Amino acid sequence: MHKLPEKFINRIKNGFPNADELLTALNETSPISVRLNPGKPNSLNKLELDEEVLWCENGFYLKTRPKFTLDPLFHAGCYYPQEAGSMYIESVVKSLNFPDSPAILDLCAAPGGKSTLLAGFLNNNGILVSNEVIRSRANILAENITKAGYANCLVTNNDPKDFQNLKGAFDVVLIDAPCSGEGMFRKDPKSRGEWSEENANLCSARQKRILMDIWDSVKENGYIIYSTCTFNPDENENNIEWFLKELDCEVVPIPRFENMLPDSKGYGFYFVPGLIKSEGFYCCVLQKKELLNLKHKVKLENISILKSIDYISFISKKENSLIYWNHDNFLYSSTPKTLEFYQQSLIKLNWIKKGVKLGENHKKGFQPDIELALNSTLINSEICIELNEQDALKYLHGDTFPLDAPSGIHLVCYQKQPLGFIKHLGNRFNNLYPKEWRIRMDLGF
Q1: Which of 40, 64, 240, 407 is least surrounded, with the fewest CB atoms within 10 Å of its CB?
Q2: What is the pLDDT of residues 214-230, one digit of tens each?
Q3: Which residues on adjacent β-strands are paired with residue 170?
Q4: Would you say residue 38 has pLDDT above 80?
Q5: Residue 329: inside a domain, yes or no?
């Protein structure tokens, strides 16, 4: 294991509170935690749940670390392995005052832990736009958002500066800023070898640039939730101090739980290993006070709304609050407000996820998409083929196996939770689970 960087140790000893407890804890075992998906309740028999995470309603520590890859319910989106400190975002958003149907942007969102938390918080109300600048990570983000199963989520692949023309578009912008990663020294020992003072300084400058790029897209009286996973004041409270001098904003009080440490300037809070059961995390909230002058006219993108999708048997007829449309030869669905946001985008964002992709109409009939299977708002899971654990893992591995069913396309489930589709040909079936999502490890059977 890499040793803790000497310059990091010296900085912590020379000014960070509870330095000895922190430095000792960074060489101990990390706690394991997951956040349950309230939209997909299940028995979660693979997880040994321990105590609750105090600042997150659905957060739990685990007694032991399971092999998440070998749990079909993990792939179904029933829970998300997430560091406990970062779950604090739930308490933060619950403490803020914003409209009943807010628009939220998670700007640096991959791999998706905080975005899926926000999706659960919104529960199909309002809009969630999750963005990631690196394309490969944006695809992973879209996968995790899809598995969460909500219908008001969009995913983009853009630089923060690309949002500058979306004046006053968002009630809340979460900036979980790229940082020097000191808070992950315990969980990811390799990060110790990648740390340097020079890199930390570059991170601080990048964080300033990111916030300035996104500033115009925040509504008047809207919020910026700023967070990092580092203990470096130059990336945390010193940056907040710079923001307050440069911009018309003010710090908003946020909830404090036992053993959270206030930063040196009283703006936000630290989660410090050795004092609290989490990795390192910092959070502060700013409220925008600058007046906006919004006089632009928006030209809506022309989208053909479908009057009926009764021919798609996989869609639950109980759901009548969503709308459906054709786009690029695919069928999509979302909440009306999500579609309106998509249509009103003033710039051409790089869209990874435009709503819930239902599927595509082929000459041979409708071909459903994995996004439909995993969307708990839309899918009719009463008509499915129930798989046992071994067959569910084989399916997720991309395998085929003996399975009695009529010819045609079928939804397959594990413990009543949808996993995806198959196309049965009479004597065998084609596995329609996306190749890029499949389990790659040897299943051992």
Answers
A1: 64
A2: 999 999 999 999 999 99
A3: 218
A4: yes
A5: no
| Distant-in-sequence, close-in-space partners of 444: CB < 8 Å, separation ≥ 6 | none
Strands 153-156 and 170-176: unpaired
Radius of gyration, CA atoms only, the chain:
23
Q: For position 337, what pLDDT does the model report?
A: 93
The answer to whether position 419 is within a domain reads: no
Q: Please give the DSSP secondary-structure letter assigned to residue 40.
A: S
Mind telling me the catalytic residues? 229
CATH number at residue 250: 3.40.50.150
Is the pTM higher than 0.90? The answer reads yes
- To which H or E segment does residue 170 belong? strand 170-176
Residue bearing the bigger pLDDT, 94 or 292? 94
Residue 421 in domain: no
Residue 374 above 60 pLDDT? yes
Residue range 22-42: mean pLDDT, rounded: 95
Q: Catalogue the E-assigned strands of 212-371.
A: 218-228, 249-252, 261-262, 269-271, 281-288, 304-305, 323-327, 330-334, 351-353, 356-362, 365-368
Contact 240, 286 (CB under 8 A): yes
Q: Which domain holds residue 82?
A: 6-288
Residue 254 corresponds to which amino acid? I
Per the prediction, the chain carries an average pLDDT of 94
Assigned domain for 153 exists: yes
Secondary structure E strands in 178-252: 218-228, 249-252
